[in-house]
């Protein structure tokens, strides 16, 4: 009888109270968000981390010291270990050596290649080339002796075969399966025994017995967890294709990004051949590298030296300059990229002038406009202002602030900057030009393309041969020296 009362009390402590809200007594084990994985002591209708509604679920209380594991309110005995614990110096790492993909730019982002058992999430907008890139990776893996299996849930096997024939990604050890059921995917893995598994995409796979439709929070979480367990148990490299939202974020629960080992973002515009792969998370290498690719009818190809891709014809030595353009050098990972910022200032009769930005951070551009107007006395109250980059590159680094400011001033005054000038530096609210890292590498990359003058913050280090480097302490000093020959 006492056991019955205990069980009833335990069930009542986790039963939702009036109005559907869980009782505070369930908080003995805390609450966990099933979207982002964050934990909370108290229940709330909205997660304080990811701002999703109705995602907090009660968790079982943690076991007391000396007690067995708690599962479903009952004590459970410890399970048998799969492998004994070893000193860190005794752990064998030969089985986790990287295997190159055959695509140098992708290897750069991954940190040298694919690690056995790693789970990689590749996210990008529709039509950007995710499937084409991974089909090429799978074909090169098969050619190197590592069997590859591509599971597609969005296309038929015949459609994938046509793309493989068009891009030359054909090999007898490249296998293709069209499935949308998790059980069928795992059966294919068991029968084919691949070394590389590509799932295109994780939002199209569903698990039997799990609530919700394919692509929902619960389904994506369960499917990903099952694929991760399989990858770790078999040492299978698994690449998951993920969709993105209209804001550019990975679709589905944020917990998905926490579960996988590597998160790659595939960026590019449909009307541009340039594609960029950025590492947002990497447990096996750098998380700030970028790979450059060019996509055409024959497939996707890596670009070893992207310098000059983000410049217009008006940039560089010996060419005619145009008002409203300025060149800067940004650093992606350890790679300097020379890029051009363009600005246009046009008078308008509208009550509210327009501000349009492409390839730059709109908040930083708005801040730079305010600093230029306040410190340099350049008025934009009756003018539309447009700012953009060339070649579809996105400049999020503050080192592009000075070039953006000078391009806007040049457009407002309708006076071009010298064609062989680069500007590097962060602009503060007081108008000061702050120092940035890797100035020497930036200047060397600009000098290699024919730029002979540079405006930089104080103490830039030695200048490259043939380049005149001018230190500018603030925005006013930079504006006064930007037309000097």
UniProtKB/TrEMBL annotation:
Keywords: ATP-binding, DNA damage, DNA repair, DNA-binding, Hydrolase, Metal-binding, Nucleotide-binding, Stress response, Zinc, Zinc-finger. SUPFAM superfamilies: P-loop containing nucleoside triphosphate hydrolases, Ribosomal protein S5 domain 2-like. GO terms for molecular function: ATP binding; ATP-dependent DNA damage sensor activity; ATP-dependent peptidase activity; damaged DNA binding; serine-type endopeptidase activity; zinc ion binding. InterPro entries: AAA+_ATPase, DNA_repair_RadA, Lon_proteolytic, P-loop_NTPase, RecA_ATP-bd, Ribosomal_Su5_D2-typ_SF, Ribsml_uS5_D2-typ_fold_subgr, Rubredoxin_2. Residues 95-244 form the RecA family profile domain. Residues 1-32 are annotated as: Disordered. Belongs to the RecA family. RadA subfamily. This is DNA repair protein RadA. It comes from Frankia casuarinae (strain DSM 45818 / CECT 9043 / HFP020203 / CcI3). The gene is radA.
